[in-house]
Fold these 3 entries.
Entry 1:
Amino acid sequence: MSDHLRVLVTGAGGMLAHDLVPALRTAGHVVTAMGRDDLDVTDPDVCTAAAVGHDLVVNCAAWTRVDDAESHEQEAFAVNAVGAANVARGAADAGARLAHLSTDYVFDGQSTIPYAAEHPPSPRSAYGRTKLAGEWAVRALCANSWVVRTAWLYGAGGPNFVTTMLRLAGERDTLEVVDDQLGQPTWTRDLADLIVRMIAADAPAGIYHGTSSDETTWHGLARAVLEARGLDPERVRPTTTDAFPRPAPRPAYSVLSHATLEVAGVTPIRDWRSALAEYLQS
Ligand SMILES: NC(=O)c1ccc[n+]([C@@H]2O[C@H](COP(=O)([O-])OP(=O)(O)OC[C@H]3O[C@@H](n4cnc5c(N)ncnc54)[C@H](OP(=O)(O)O)[C@@H]3O)[C@@H](O)[C@H]2O)c1
């Protein structure tokens, strides 16, 4: 592949695409960014036509409302599974590689050691089921594909936990935040850079985990957010998942292994603390 690719990004109005499109352009790639109004992934003909003339398609389009998916699984499936299949078929027909974004929710959250890319998936939520079906569709329909699972994303391009904590810290004396879910807070700019580095490394087809290094709980993340802004982290009080029942079950353990990146010669994303500090200064 040449150094400068023609890249189609779907779901261009979303949080990840907000940082991915400029990162790809900075790396010298020629990007077609298409939001939902221009490219609805539930339309197979539109997906096939859009992929023509591209070397790489990055599928950022997704139904991401995890709790709503419990009561609207068919609608979520139409985007996360059928939509992924449409994009994959379009990419394969165009002779393009596909980078498809997926999630830690494909796992059951019961592990105590980081999930390997090849660990058997066992989603516990409707969102997770639809995203897993999307992974299978992508791998079946586009052999030249990367499934890039991410988790706990935050960034300038969308509402997210970090900005919510800063807003709440301005409104309340104390914040109750769950301390019994472990994960890897991941800045969209770091994930965008990872995808750029995977392109540069010409990483082989397969499943990769695009999350920060090290781990924390939501409570640990909230404390770090307040601390970075010079606020008292003791204002964040630990609570449990049971105290905040939600329609979709949350994985207790969402730490993902980066071994397949290392095997491909791609450096995994840095420690979440250093990313958070830079995000809060940007
Ligand atoms: N955010 C996280 O913490 C997280 C965690 C794990 C995995 N992921 C995965 O990472 C990827 C990017 O997530 P994100 O946070 O950037 O999500 P996002 O901000 O919700 O972006 C998804 C985009 O897809 C668009 N979309 C929805 N239905 C579509 C359709 N039928 N055709 C075309 N576009 C459609 C959405 O448009 P509308 O807004 O108009 O619906 C939105 O702009 C997704 O695959 C997601 O599953 C995210």
Note: Residues 10-11, 13-16, 36, 39-42, 60-64, 79, 83, 101, 103, 131, 150-153, 158 surround NAP (CB under 6 Å).
Entry 2:
Amino acid sequence: MKLRIAITGVAGFIGSNLAERLLAEGHQVVGIDNLAYGLREQIPAEVEFFELDIRDRRLSELLRPDDVVFLLAAKNCISDCQDDPVETASINVAGTVNVFEASRRAGAAKVVYAESSALYEGSDVLPTPEREARPQSFYAVSKLAGMAFAEAFRRYHGMRMTALRYFCVYGPRQDYRRAIPPVMSAFIIRLMRGEQPVIYGTGEKRRDFIHVNDVNDFHLRCISDSRTDGRVFNLGSGVSYSVKKIYQQVAKLLESSTIPAYRPDLQGEAEETLADISAATELGWQPKITLEQGLASFVDYYRTRGVPQLEN
Ligand SMILES: NC(=O)c1ccc[n+]([C@@H]2O[C@H](COP(=O)([O-])OP(=O)(O)OC[C@H]3O[C@@H](n4cnc5c(N)ncnc54)[C@H](O)[C@@H]3O)[C@@H](O)[C@H]2O)c1
């Protein structure tokens, strides 16, 4: 069935990939973004786009009864959030509540919203199940506040909602324009430009990476499968790789023998992230893209589109 689906954060990495997928599935897509971090050119042309802040009260006027609303807009660079907890709360808490309230007023069918594996910062249980939420950073705490508000909206208004805890999502249009870009884009871009990539710490930290196409498979499930209502799901691959291993894989793909530069460790980062994905897999979802396939297609993406320059 063709649905009207609203995506906040549509100009960003996950939002633009989701828009593309939903359009390919025949849905109508309305996109909302204030372009604070995202790029207009990333929004597919068929999206009906509104440049608006998620804190704007006029948001409810853009939504219609029976819309499915994806809340992906957020202030999400952990170090930026540490520098400005007030703006972090403003966007990720007040903005989140405004999206929930606008969805309620409009009579939306469902809200699917982004949490983060950062909620597990204070847990040493691996693989980490959904009940382990122990946020530490301002970013993670802001996501926890969003979760508490979602519960209240469900309690008082019976809204259908699903929370998604993404681990390290990667793929085309991943945001590399940060002081410290995500490792995969950073390694690929540096090596393709003939520059020396940087590893912070020893390279032994391990991360659970999940390709954005696999994440989109679960997004579609949230729209069609009522068993996702009122629940929270980890979205990772259930496998972790060391940063060093990622580097070796990328270097092999690009046939590079460049030795990376090692710099002091970044503060406050977990030694390992690893998702317990049993809640999602019990519904029939499985990540399909292996690390080798995902990295190869990521390299192809930059080969076709051109290799950007990193800021630092
Ligand atoms: N990418 C990941 O690996 C990852 C991991 C965990 C959680 N998440 C969460 O998933 C969501 C999407 O992440 P992403 O990687 O696509 O991020 P992104 O930064 O690429 O996209 C976020 C988009 O939200 C927009 N935005 C920010 N503040 C806004 C505001 N006040 N009003 C309107 N738009 C605003 C930005 O301009 C940007 O286009 C975020 O909520 C993020 O916290 C992502």
Note: Residues 9, 11-15, 33-38, 53-55, 72-76, 91, 95, 114, 116-117, 166, 168-169, 175 surround nicotinamide-adenine-dinucleotide (CB under 6 Å).
Entry 3:
Amino acid sequence: MKHQHERPCARAAARVAAVLALLATVVGMACRPPDAAAPPAPAGVTLPAGAAEAADTIAAGDLLRDVTAISSDDMEGRLPGSAGDRRARTYLASRLAELGLEPAFGRDGWEQPVPIVGVTSRLPETWSFRAPGGGRVAFRLGDEYTGASGVQQPSVSIDGAEVVFVGYGIQAPEEGWDDFKGADLAGKVLLMLNDDPDWDEGLFGGERKLSYGRWTYKYESAARQGAAAAIIIHTTPSAGYPWPVVRTGWSGQQFELAAGDEPRTKLRAWLTEDAARRLVALAGHNLDTLVESARSPGFAPVALGVTTSLRFGVELETGATANVGGILRGADPRLAGELVVITAHHDHFGVGQPDETGDAIYNGALDNGVAMAQALAVARAFTAMPSPPRRSLLVLFPAAEEQGILGSAFFVRSRAFQPGRIAADINFELGNVWGRTRDVTVFGKGKSELDELLATLAADQGRVLVEEPDVRAGWFYRSDQISFARAGVPAIWFKSGTDFIGRPAGWGEAQYAAWIERHYHQPSDEVDPSWNLDGLVQDARLAFLLAATVANRDAMPVWLPGDEFEDERLASLATLQWKL
Ligand SMILES: [Zn+2]
């Protein structure tokens, strides 16, 4: 969906102005192959032969050439399904071919077609609810409620469905948490709290927002219960953004993947906190009391007795885009069947509202041109090694990330490659065009063994890992790495932090903030001659060294014990064993 406000691109940069993050642990120092000058590499990080030299071939000039091409006006902003989108995909495939990679998708070649559907929901101006005694409340579209069809059908109707308050709407066996307690919720309208429990360090990562706290999870959770609709109660702290952001984000056409056989609710809705307060009051309840009761693992759903009916039309428009991918075969006959994946989404917003200079092409140079250039640079470094690492490399450019992380979700769902055979995903999103830093921001730091490997490799660059500035915002769940994580694949997204070499404190935050202010999702997000690409080079080298290390180790990386994605990983690995 077009929740531009939530794209990592925006929020991460917008937030850096706020807090400088904590220093991370530096696990070890040297990571180059032992020689007379270097101390021995710590356990777990052994670079493949020639990797250090191959990393040094990553150069600013190559990055600039690719980002210039991919964000040129000729690409028309790369809107999914557009002619510019097709040209950009062709450019990426030709670059992968030039580098000597093989097409990743068998008979489909370099591209994996991704069917998408544009959904425009014509919700009624008011949505009303009735109490058994005859009382009634109604909420105005935009001001008090918003939402979208959950199904790809020309019309939606909900008839006399009962509203049930279900707390957070979370089922998390590893946390000992189940808000549904076996209640029959089929056909009901589930009213739920946003976010996940955050008052206890031992529960749901404390203040950290896990996937259970994201609206995507909430609607899917309701669908698994067979609910007719789900309503999330908006509060600014729990969402991380104010109501107007919800209102604009959920209006107009929303792109989705073509529906499969997954369960869906008919309606995905939001209510303001004030509206929710009046809705539960109609049922004789107090919202604060209900919220308090939801803060306990013993919570059980509360049927409110209030019912609602709703009918609306839906306009559907089918479209087509594609993921682009190339493979470099691993050198080990056994491990070559396993992949290390590098991702960088290729889409942007196309041609739209002109800015004050009359420019209407949303070039997306920083978002996400530099990231694609970095992914290509990593591919090139792999080919510069004397022989490839043991596992195979897949360089994947997912489609339609800006529309709701669609391409990578489709890739994982397609089982073109079994998730249990994917060792890791390393994602590029946005980038640093202001020079070299002493720090590396890891979004969702502390989830997998990849952090420990990265810390060691970063230390060799003289850099330390830091957490994202606002851990409550849940950036880890907002770009392509999340599609892999949800399929159990250890995944990481990192990029330069804000501590720039030779610059005073606060300078880095100011650069990010100024860029957001002037260029984010604007036609002026173009290649700028004043850019300093040394930071991009640093980050691309680091990603390459991490990918090469993971590709060459005996064992695939693991989630840290108890991580929310650990069970999914164990399940996907167990399935594989049966197939051997
Ligand atoms: Zn982006």
Note: The two ends are 39 Å apart (CA to CA).
